[in-house]
């Protein structure tokens, strides 16, 4: 009975990831070409989405841990997402589109962190403790699969069928997820008695948190995701303006990395049954150092392709096991844990976007990768100060 539930969770994560992969990469092109706005106005909705997502994720995540059932919340958020995509499809008024993107679309993306929270709840109740990191890695791999196919499909649809068809398809996917969440996923049982005494004590009284390791992990993950975001922003312009290599090669480079990420996600989840997850994440930081140092000194296309092996290790381990680190530090608080981890990506996107603009303006895009090396060094140092959390009590047979 458990296996179909897990398969359903995997399918829903792929669907939610596919919606994001269809909408987010094409949104800047939609604003610039379809609404004909200047670059500054293109950036405003993205900054607003990042800020709003941080607020929504943390506040809703904290509140959701007191809900008896997350499914109606996930379904409602997906309905808001469908409505947002329909506005994108049929409106050509910039401020309406920007307002909906910041207020509603960012709220709908909380469905990802809440679906992740449901997944963590399911894992804590139904999966052996030593296999939870592997399960989390498989869940995150569905997002990687979605991002292999989603962006190319989104750009092809936008180019040949138009943005109206693209965003109507995204709205339809949101609606399907909203229906499947309440129709397919079961309501989870209350925590087992040993979990209640070890982690939660009662639905409203939880074990106290250790804030220092949480703060260190939040900063470290934000630095790593910020370095990744700066890389994604800078690489196309670096290839085009400084290496005189066509920016169309970026799609092939990123596609190569996405394909390599999946096996490393799964492998990291398997190894995490034998190696502490913090050790694995620190190893990912070393791969990040090799990646950004290599890109800084690269001048040929083949060198950039070969470095995607380091990129796949960096992102695969970070995405596959990052939530497991936070989950171990916040037992019994799946909603808060998933929201906190998701917010590290938004925090990283905020400060790295500003960093890219300042560094590239004063120096060049190549120097951004040198700053990335510094960011990853800080992240590794922060992780070095975090002790491995004590394991949960063994599950009774």
From TrEMBL:
Compartments, record wording: Cell membrane
Organism: Cellvibrio polysaccharolyticus
GO molecular function: transmembrane transporter activity
Gene3D superfamilies recorded: MFS general substrate transporter like domains
Lineage, uppermost ranks: Bacteria, Pseudomonadati, Pseudomonadota, Gammaproteobacteria, Cellvibrionales
Keyword set, alphabetical order: Cell membrane, Membrane, Sugar transport, Transmembrane, Transmembrane helix, Transport
Domain of life: Bacteria
InterPro entries found in the cross-reference section: MFS (IPR011701), MFS_dom (IPR020846), MFS_trans_sf (IPR036259)
Membrane-crossing residue ranges in chain numbering: 7-31, 37-60, 72-90, 96-120, 132-149, 161-182, 214-237, 249-272, 279-299, 305-326, 338-359, 365-386
Keyword set includes Transport: yes
Domain Major facilitator superfamily (MFS) profile: 1-390
Membrane topology category: Multi-pass membrane protein
A GO-annotated cellular component: plasma membrane
Protein name: MFS transporter
Family under the similarity heading: Belongs to the major facilitator superfamily. Set transporter family.
Database matches in Pfam families: MFS_1 (PF07690)
Main location class: membrane
